[in-house]
Fold:
Amino acid sequence: QVHLVESGGGLVQAGGSLRLSCVASGRSFNRHTMGWFRQAPGQEREFVAAITWNGVGTKYADSVKGRFTISRDNAENTVYLHMRRLKPEDTAGFYCAASPTAYNDYDLSRRSQYNYWGQGTQVTVSP
Structure:
């Protein structure tokens, strides 16, 4: 079992930055690929970014490439999402997720690969 708790969301103006954190407790955090997904009202939950267990492999949704950076600190059981140049369309609930099986590029963005999910943190970007 992996328990995930996100923090760092809030209200920010367009063009601003936020850093989300996700702290994991439980077993074998450093053996899990970690991902960030987001869900806006009335929309499906979508992939944002993912990082493999060793931090070597990363993947981003096209909509956030060049603006968001995912990183992890295995010693602190924490994964981060640094978001820059935020846009109103980034407004959503952001969810951290852990996968024991996603390693290749195809699987990193597949929701079905992620077994553990946090409760989410809200990000609101005003125009």
In short: Helices lie at 105-108.
